[in-house]
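Look over this one:
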Amino acid sequence: MFFKYTALNNKGEESHGSIEAFNIDTAINDLQKKGLIISKIDDAEKKSFKIPSFSMFKSVSNKDVVILSRQMATLFTAQVSALRVFRLLGSQNENLALRQYLLAIVDDLQGGSSISAALAKYPDVFSSFYVNMVKSGEESGKLDEVFNYLADYLDRTYAVTSKAKNALIYPAFVVATFIGVMVLMLTVIIPKIATMITDSGQPVPFYTTLVLLISNIFVHYGIFLGIALVIAGFFVWKYAKTEQGAMALDSMRLNLPYLGGLYRKLYLSRIADNLNTMIVSGIPILRALEITSSVVDNKTFKAILDDSLVQVKEGVPLSTALGQYPEIPNIMVQMMKVGEETGELGSILKSLSNFYEREVINAVDSLVGLIEPVMIVALGLGVGILLAAVLMPIYNIASSA
């Protein structure tokens, strides 16, 4: 039987091909012996067979992976074999999905697979960064140190990212409340008052006429406005899925007032932390740049890292390559240049990572402290202006009666 496959080689490069084997299990074993990491394999005469996923179970959170990494570091330090480590953690893990992943990895290890190759089958749980770090630990014989590095890195990343995200929840709630209050007033309260104003025969001020017009639009055409917003949101979502759309939205995110600076520091912290962790673990700078590009989660910075990777391959220093882009601060470029000249690039990147991590935390704290009074004042002004626009004519009517 012939099988078509998609796989990754030991350099992380994707390849496609076909293989003849007695059955699909034999085909998978033969490919794994060649050092390939299989992501998909098809029987030419039957439907596609994918490496099983466990999406029907509870998802695996970042916290689960951090705890798992700590446990593996402890067990590897105690000289426990890899097969026993994964069997032990798989049998006792409380997360059903992670338990299934770990038991599947045990099967792969029993079949002769390396740890990194087994982990690479589940990119939703173990990122390319995570897999390459484990691979470096296998090659250097320092798996215990690598898993500790990974746990520390994931802890830092989760703390900074979650703090930034949580800072945006309160403003979003206040804005949603503001919009809800305004819509409620325009569709329920204002129409009732409008009848009294128009029936009085008194001249209506311009600003009141404008408010009544907006209220009338919401009352009679609100359903159409809602449908239009849903359609517009759908098209924005579809556009964001395209390469061009993702690039435009990521660029816009970096140029937002105040928030743009917050996002920029977040991505710079992530880049420095990724590069530091991998360089310290012995991963070559080219591979470190390639992996960092894939996990930075912003198209603008991804393009910068991809272009820098090409230049570094041609012999250009990393600091020089990054220094061509205005998105990379000059202080970061100069510090990296010092690190390259002194051979201490890893420690310099660690300092940069710590610096931008503190900058993100400080920016988030300032944002949270500033945004609460600003939103409350904005909500009060909006409701006050709306009420004044309709109450002033009523006051005039009452005064002239």
Observations:
- The chain is about 75% helix and 5% strand.
- Residues 46-57 have pLDDT under 50 and may be disordered.
- The first helix runs from residue 24 to 33.
- The first strand starts at residue 2 and ends at 8.
